[in-house]
Design a protein that fits this description.
With about 220 residues, the protein is α+β, with helices and mostly antiparallel strands. The protein has one domain: L-fuculose-1-phosphate Aldolase (3-Layer(aba) Sandwich). About 45% of the residues lie in helices and about 15% in strands. It contains 7 helices and 9 strands. The strands form 2 sheets. It has a 7-stranded antiparallel sheet, with helices on both faces. Helix 2 runs parallel beside helix 5, helix 4 crosses helix 6 and helix 4 crosses helix 7. The protein is globular, with a radius of gyration of 17 Å. Bound molecules: zinc ion (ZN).
């Protein structure tokens, strides 16, 4: 299945981009049928094979697969239920997003590429235990219509229409967190882009650059 290949490629990219520590984090895709493919629980990214990826229905019931689905399945299901525009999710414990998740209530947008991909100030959720429905609901509320959210004392969740989009959101979320941490360390408060400009940049990206890319 082409979506399984996209998930395996995403797992490799997560390693290559250094967005992972140990086996933590998970990746999923929504199929046209509405069912969801998700990485299994507890298997390192570089050891996941196509047959290890678990197929669930939208309620989380396993349809196909010998292994258990990721322990954050509830978060993935809640995001797909809320966001019709989202077909891929990348959840990682990337370093700077995790640092920001324990310091800030939000990470403002400082540069245009982050604005274009994420679409708004990156919120940090309230703390909830991993794998719980409470965490899933916090993530849904805090991400709103943006393409990434930072999960308190935990990591980040990034979404997109395609796996390529979700992976870019994950990278931009990490970049935003890193930039803000570095900026704050200078002792000066960085100038942030206004909500209005962030929105305009996002719309411009979605309606022009992204469409040009899709045409290639
Ligand atoms: Zn996690």
């Amino acid at each position: 299945m082409k979506e399984s290949i996209a998930i395996l490629e995403a797992c490799q990219q997560i390693i290559d981009l250094k967005l992972v520590s140990g086996t933590w984090g998970n990746v999923s895709m929504r199929l046209e049928s509405g069912n969801i493919l998700i990485t299994p629980s507890g298997i390192p990214y570089d050891e996941i094979r196509e047959e290890d990826i678990v197929l669930c229905d939208k309620t989380g019931k396993v349809i196909e697969g010998k292994l258990l689905p990721s322990s954050e399945l509830k978060m993935h299901l809640a995001l797909y239920a809320k966001r019709e525009d989202v077909n891929a999710i990348v959840h990682t414990h990337s370093l700077y997003a995790s640092v920001a998740s324990s310091i800030f209530k939000e990470v403002p947008i400082l540069v245009e590429d982050v604005a274009m991909v994420i679409g708004g100030t990156i919120k940090v959720t309230e703390y909830k235990l991993p794998g719980t429905e409470e965490l899933a609901q916090e993530v849904v509320v805090s991400i709103g219509n943006n393409n990434a959210v930072i999960i308190s004392n935990h990591g980040q969740a990034a979404v997109g229409q395609t796996m390529e989009d979700a992976m870019l959101s994950a990278q931009m979320c990490e970049k935003a967190a890193q930039m803000y941490i570095v900026a704050v360390q200078t002792g000066k408060m960085p100038r942030t882009l206004s909500d209005k400009d962030v929105k305009m940049l996002y719309e411009k990206y979605v309606n022009s650059y992204k469409k040009l890319k899709e045409k290639r």
